[in-house]
Amino acid sequence: MYSVEIDGIEINIKTDNTCFSPDGADRGTLAMLSVSDVRAGEKVLDLGCGAGIVGIWCAKITGAENVVMTDICPVSVDFAKENALENGVEGVKVVCGDGFEKVDEADFDVILSNPPYHTDFAVAKGFIEKGFNRLKIGGRMLMVTKRLDWYKNKLTAVFGGCKVREIDGYYVFEAVKRSMTRKDAEKKLQKKLLKTEAKAEEKTGKKVPKRFRK
Asked: Edge to edge, what strands does the sheet with 93-96 contain?
């Protein structure tokens, strides 16, 4: 077990060597939390929660009923549940699953994740792509890693941009879900054009010449 104080909030974490960062709070996690700006009442997902430090800290601010934690490791999930109880935020929801597999909720204000960046990018790819769909408009995803280029490029491709901060040797990424990405806008325009063409063809009985098609 270890104790840590984050922005005036003290948290006690029980864990073991099967979990991520068993000897103390991970510096990358602390870097991410230092700029997370979680507010009271916001709906938060701790994605890949480990023993629960991120979700518990958020629950102290936003309210336990507004926090969901998930991890693929059953041992970590058991510790997260125990630690939530120990720290007085037993109302958080903790589920065991692969990524978003067991997360039924959507419309999150904030998704926070310290992904397993020492492996290939398959896990992070799923976190980012599926995370975008689980955020409300204006919601934000924060991730922390030691790798820059791939995460910056992927978050920019999915969200249309991202902010990068370098803190204590880690990169903290923040991406906001706008009303529509450029790719979504292009798809919407294409659908609108096709619908217009279909109406024109129906009205005139003639195919729209290809030179007028986008």
From this structure: 93-96, 67-71, 44-47, 108-113, 135-145, 170-176, 163-167
